[in-house]
Amino acid sequence: IDADGTNHVYYSNRSAAYLKKGDGNNALEDAMSTIAINPDFSKGYSRKGAALHSLKRYNDAITAYEEGLTKFANDAALKKGLEEVKRD
Q1: pLDDT above 80 for 72
Q2: Gyration radius (Cα) of the chain, Å
Q3: Rounded CA gap, 22 and 26, in Å?
Q4: pTM (predicted TM-score)
Q5: Taking Cα atoms as reference points, which of 53, 78, 84, 80 lies closest to residue 66?
Q6: CB under 8 Å to 20, separation ≥6 — which residues?
Q7: CA 68 to chain centre
Q8: Three-state SS for 41?
Q9: Treating both helix axes as pointing N-terminal to C-terminal, what angle do 24-37 and 42-54 enclose, rounded to 10 degrees?
Q10: 29-43 in b/e burial notation, b at 16+ Cβ within 10 A?
C-alpha cells in the first residue's frame, strides 16, 4: 500500500487479514478504502459487511451487503454474508 495506494486489491486483502486477526475497526477502514478506490469491486462490499458484522453492527452490515447486492445481484459472497448477519 505504501508503494501503490491506488490499488484497491491491496486494501481488500489487508481488510481480510485484519478481520482474520480480529481487528474489525481496521478491517472496516480498509474495506471503505477499497470501495472508495473502486466502487465496482464486489469484494469491497463483502469486506465492509464482514467487518461491520464482526463489530456487531448488524444493521449496518445488512445495509453494506444490500448495497453490494444492488450492484452485484448474483454475488455469492454477498448473499452468504447477508444470510449470516441476518441469523445473528
Answers
A1: yes
A2: 12
A3: 9
A4: 0.94
A5: 78
A6: none
A7: 9
A8: coil
A9: 160
A10: bbbbbbbebbeebbb
Is the separation of the CB atoms in 30 and 24 below 8 Å?
Answer: no
Cell numbers representing residue 37 in the block: 478506490
Which cell is 12 given? Answer: 481488500
pLDDT digits (tens, 9 = 90+) for 73-87: 999 999 999 999 999
Rounded to whole angstroms, the Cα distance separating 67 from 10 reads 22
How many Å apart are CA 20 and CA 57, to the nearest integer? 17
Q: What amino acid is encoded at 20 in this protein? A: K
Tens-place pLDDT, residues 12-53: 999 999 999 999 999 999 999 999 999 999 999 999 999 999
Q: Mind giving me the DSSP string for 54-79?
A: HTT-HHHHHHHHHHHHHH-TT-HHHH
